[in-house]
Design goal:
The complex is a heterodimer of chains A (155) and B (344). Chain A has 155 residues and is an alpha+beta fold. Chain A contains five helices and seven strands. The N terminus of chain A is likely disordered. Helix content of chain B is 67%, strand content 5%. In chain B, helix 2 packs antiparallel against helix 3 and helix 6 crosses helix 10.
């Protein structure tokens, strides 16, 4: 069932720069062929930071070498379906859209359920449960290219 | 009854819209000062001014920092009450799942990650709500809900850590609270009285009564897209600090993209209030390029597979899922309005 989900759900992307298609999900893996910047790709599964390329030929690229095709997200689902299975689903999506707004306008708050959430105490001993995790020092992350561009625009 | 409350809600929306128009008009006509964006920011700028006047900077600085502490803690109370009102509304649309083990799991992981942030002192609470749609919601003050549909979609505890990290980031950065607070100022809604806040459980009801129109509107529109990218960025950092694989966020987003490429019904509201998963993946890839050291912590934790045993507890039996689809299916599937965090 999982494999059929993936098989029917290739995502469109392109190569962000010139790179090498690898035989396995590793920078040390054999290079199968060179991929030019801008080459259209169909992406399937993912392993860590590596994406399985199904087309134009099979192999692996790093997530930093790939740009997914961006569809507009405004106005609900109509503009967002991507990949090959996009067609023919308009009935399901428009149905869900209408119901969502209606429920938002009519649903009433449940304060009893809120009190349940607030009063709930986990039965897990956290110290033991997370014992084998190593917490790390991670400095504030540097801005992405998009964030820098947006800052420039605002100036 | 429904019609009446719906009309009231619409009326209040129209009213707050009118207030907004009038306020903008007044600002244009009379050159009124701009509405302050939020206390911490304003105090910050006054601090800068005072430190430029060197002669009295010491005393002024001390006074301001005391003031800032007092005001921020009072602000926290109101933020928490408003957030609880938001949470009650979500819970009115879909209740908590009736499974103590799953509830404990999510509550413990969420609390553990929130403890790594600069707002660890908030009364954090994390819950799973019963809905097949895929979404998660952060409410001001530290309440976080995710749908059982999202919980069951995840592949690892590390992925859950990045989802919770995203929601926690919304709370830490006060994304929704800033919007509610701004709308409150614009519509001239009075602060929620401290006595009501002190009354404990009554505070959330008082907040709901005072803010209903604003809350419903803010849930429906979500925050701006830049805020969602920001929450992704801070969320993976929190997950990394806690010891989880920050890159597992790519997997969550890829699963969302695949869902959207299918019927898309279960992610429709999430997509209304968020950039597409493809855009978020591209943005995270850029963050990875800007911060190559993140790759060193892009390895699944030893607990990655632990989520599977909890997901098994929520898998509906054949019978239950059949009756779900007739009895509560329509109600629950429509819950997709609530924002990943609006989740928002």
């Amino acid at each position: 069932m999982l494999s059929s989900t993936w098989a029917s759900a290739l995502l469109e992307a392109e190569a962000k720069r010139d790179c090498s298609l690898r035989a396995t999900a590793s920078a040390k893996a054999e290079s199968l062929e060179s991929i030019e910047s801008g080459t259209s790709l169909m992406i399937g599964e993912r392993k860590g930071l590596w994406l399985k390329v199904e087309e134009p030929s099979a192999g692996w690229l790093k997530v930093t070498e790939v740009k997914f095709k961006e569809k507009s997200s405004g106005g609900g689902l109509s503009g967002l379906a991507s990949g090959r299975q996009a067609a023919g689903n308009s009935v399901a999506s428009s149905g869900a859209r209408g119901l969502g707004t209606e429920l938002l306008e009519t649903s009433q708050p449940d304060f009893d359920e809120l009190e349940k959430l607030k009063a709930f105490e986990s039965t897990i001993d956290a110290e033991q449960f997370f014992a084998d995790l190593e917490t790390r020092e991670v400095p504030e992350l540097k801005a992405s290219k998009r964030q820098k561009d947006q800052k420039k625009k605002r100036r | 009854m429904f019609n009446l409350s719906r009309r009231l809600c619409l009326l209040s929306l129209i009213f707050s819209g009118l207030c907004l128009a009038l306020t903008i008009n007044a600002h244009a006509k009379f050159g009124l000062p701009k509405i302050p964006k939020g206390l911490p920011m304003d105090l910050g700028s006054s601090k800068q001014e005072s430190s430029s006047k060197k002669s009295d900077s010491d005393t002024a600085g001390k006074g301001l920092s005391l003031l800032s502490t007092a005001m921020s803690s009072q602000g926290d109370d109101e933020e928490i009450a408003a957030g609880d009102a938001v949470t009650a509304l979500y819970l009115g649309a879909a209740p908590l799942v009736q499974n103590e083990a799953v509830a404990s799991y999510v509550q413990s992981l969420g609390t553990y990650i929130a403890a790594q942030t600069e707002r660890s002192e908030l009364p954090w609470a994390f819950g799973v709500i019963d809905s097949p749609t895929v979404n998660a919601f952060a409410a001001p003050g530290g309440k976080v809900l995710l749908t059982s549909g999202l919980f069951n979609m995840l592949d690892s505890e590390d992925q859950l850590a990045t989802v919770l990290g995203h929601e926690i980031a919304h709370v830490v950065l006060q994304h929704h609270w800033k919007i509610i607070k701004k709308q409150k100022l614009i519509s001239g809604v009075a602060d929620i009285a401290v006595s009501e806040v002190d009354a404990g459980s009554g505070a959330s009801e008082a907040a709901f009564n005072a803010l209903e129109g604003i809350i419903r509107q803010s849930i429906l529109s979500g925050i701006d897209r830049g805020g969602e990218f920001e929450a992704d960025q801070h969320g993976i950092r929190y997950a990394a600090i806690a010891g989880y694989n920050c890159a597992s966020a790519f997997g969550v987003l890829q699963s969302l993209a695949v869902r959207a490429a299918g019927s898309g019904a279960d992610v429709s509201f999430l997509y209304k209030t968020h950039p597409t998963a493809e855009k978020r993946i591209n943005e995270l890839a850029e963050i990875l390029i800007s911060n190559p050291s993140l790759e060193d912590v892009a390895v699944d934790s030893v607990y990655a597979q632990r989520i599977l045993q909890y997901q098994a507890l929520l898998e509906p039996t054949e019978e239950a899922s059949a009756s779900d689809s007739t009895v509560s299916g329509s109600m629950l599937s429509s819950f997709s309005y609530c924002g990943l965090c609006n989740a928002h």
